[in-house]
């Protein structure tokens, strides 16, 4: 990384990888639907996102606990 204090500019010679994880509120069983518009906008900019199924909200038909669904 190069920092030019006179110009206040920073040049990075590395790339940052990012993924957005959307988490919905309680009592919602269709989390990915709630976030799909934002996810589409992010994808257009090359930023992947995911809305994981939350076992505590009864999604995916699996019991809650360490064996429930998580991030892909």
From TrEMBL:
Highest taxon of source: Bacteria
Gene source species: Streptomyces angustmyceticus
Protein name listed in UniProt: Alpha/beta hydrolase
InterPro entries assigned to the protein according to its UniProt record, in alphabetical order: AB_hydrolase_fold
Gene3D superfamilies linked to this entry: alpha/beta hydrolase
